[in-house]
Amino acid sequence: MRVLITGAAGRIGSQVVEELSDSHDLCLIDLRPVRHRNSIIADLSRSLSSSPWTSWFKSKPARWSGAFEGAQVVIHLAADIDPGAPWQSILPNNIQGTWNVIQTAAEHRVRRVVFASSNWAVKAVEQKLAPDCYRPDGPKIDSTTAPSPLTAYGLSKAFGELAGRMFVDEGSLDSFVAVRIGNYQPKPSTDKIVRARWIGVEDIRSLFRRCVEADLKGFHVVYGVSAQTTAPYDLSETVQVLSWFPQQCAEE
Amino acid sequence: MRVVISGAAGRIGVQMVEELEEHELRLIDRVPVPQRKSIIADLAVNHAGALRRPWWRFGSASWIDSFEEADVVLHLAADVRQNAPWKSVLRDNIRATWNVLQIAARYRVPRVIFASSNWAVRALEQALAPSCYRPDGPKIGSADSPKPVGPYGISKAFGELAGRMSVDQHQLRSFVAVRIGAYAPEPYRSDERLRALWIGSHDIRALLRRCVESTAEGFHVVYGVSAQPTAPYDLTYTCDFLSWKPRQNALNE
After folding, report:
1. CATH for A2-46+64-242, among 3.40.50.300, 3.90.1010.10, 3.40.50.170, 3.40.50.720?
2. What DSSP state is assigned to residue B243?
3. What is the pLDDT of residues A4-52, one digit of tens each?
4. B214 domain-assigned
5. I want to staple B72 with a disulfide (CB 3.0 to 4.6 A). Which of A99, A236, B66, B111 is the partner?
6. How many domains would you assign to chain B?
7. Which residues on chain B are in Cβ contact (under 8 Å) with A154?
8. Residue B46 falls in which region: left (phi positive, over 0), alpha (psi -120 to 50) or beta
9. Contact B95 A149 (CB under 8 A)
10. What is the ipTM, given to two decimal places?
11. CB distance B90–A96 less than 8 Å?
12. Is A153 a catalytic residue?
């Protein structure tokens, strides 16, 4: 399958690139070059036209949108990933950038967009349920929980989910998977609450592989978290939609 | 009460300026408000410096200062074209609404009333159509979360989310999103859907007055539509929460 990955040089991006590179035809985009790989260097917040400066040098302006041609799946990871990022950075990088990516995917008839949403998209719900939601038998946040952000970053992730759902409702995308990622780290944190939201390398890789390869239609919200029972999320729909189950656990 | 009205020169804005006359009004719009003192400003720009009048225009303030000691902001300003392109919606609706919420928080304005739209739940309406236009059909209620159609719709959904966030962060005491149907002085004759969504001048004035004057806390979604039973909305919560009832009816006028 031809898979386009934005933010391919990022923390999760580099893992997903390694995971998928043997089995899929990848096209990589990032602000920075991706190590040891061919990639497109582009700022997704600048819509589709390049600056006069680059077009003066090149006969054809380098449009990152052209790379979407022929792609079956877009994995959109590119963002300002700082949960405390100021609005001035969130607006171009996360809101404008995500709109451009989804819009361009729809224009090029890409079937599916997989979007890196975040636990920050439902932070207000988590706070309301805390500390009960960290108990194994406590109330959990599930895939039907509507976004309730608490920061500009969380708001931008909620926006991405809304936009994706809208494109699916309009029929311009076959499917959109919003992955509300917990806390991705190679090793679980020592902080109890951060550890409850942990997702390890192996799990995030297999999760994104399933998001690309699973046979599904429509709009879906899934949670990216490993198997610890303290996680504040109910994984039943994630497991059912993707036939995926986390193999790692922060509590071992 | 000190009431800031953004978009005061707009279609709904001019009605509200008349309606709320007994309050101390501060009017903001990109164009002058006819026969009133108003602040001409672009809400998408929130650097006070860029907006301050030059020194020789002594006396006119920036829009930001007008939030000082306000009791409530009625935020109507937006690109109101339902087919507005993304670029314009990003600037005039998303950025401007964010700025309004930020400045309201900075000046500790306790309440913001936001003109949301039927477009924020239009996908839901489309999924329920045509039975939602039947008097006994399934209706869209205040608990339904946004399912927008188009850039305009998503900008209104964004405003609702941002408002809920301001309340959850305790930056605002209350935020009321008014999902306005189709406002026109007279009911629509030819378009059945627009007639079902219609809200008349009398009703929108009374409704927004109730929103401005209500002191309830928290985040609330209400519907702005007149009393025709063909409306796809369930007004139970709107009427309970605001102690308001529509008096007009598109089918009788």
Report:
1. 3.40.50.720
2. T
3. 999 999 999 999 999 999 999 999 999 999 999 999 999 999 865 445 5
4. yes
5. B111
6. 1
7. 165
8. alpha
9. no
10. 0.92
11. yes
12. yes
Residues belonging to chain B with any Cβ–Cβ distance to chain A shorter than 8 Å: 86, 90, 94-95, 98, 102, 123, 126-127, 145-150, 153-154, 157-158, 161-162, 164-165, 168-169
For residue B193, the domain's CATH number is 3.40.50.720
Helix (H, G, I), strand (E, B) or coil at A195: helix
- Beta-bridged to residue A73, according to DSSP, are A3, A112
Q: Is residue B251 part of a domain?
A: no
pTM: 0.93
* Angstrom distance (rounded) from CA B253 to CA B247: 11
pLDDT of residue B253: 82
Structure confidence by residue, pLDDT tens digits, A160-174? 999 999 999 999 999
Angle B50-B55-B56 (CA atoms, 0-180°, nearest 5)? 125
Predicted pLDDT of residue A231: 97
Q: Is residue B129 part of a domain?
A: yes
Q: Tell whether B250 is covered by a domain.
A: no
CA–CA dist B150, A32 (Å, integer): 32
- Dump pLDDT digits (tens) for B92-107: 999 999 999 999 999 9
Distance (Å) from the alpha carbon of B139 to chain A's nearest alpha carbon = 19
DSSP states of A120-175 as a string?
Answer: GGGHHHHHHHTTGGGSTTS--B-TTPPP--SSHHHHHHHHHHHHHHHHHHTTS-SE
Tell me which residue range forms the domain holding B155.
2-242
Q: Which of A87, A99, A146 sits opposite B98 (nearest CB)?
A: A87
Place of tokens 């990622």: A181
What's the CA dihedral at A82, A87, A88, A93 to 10 degrees?
60
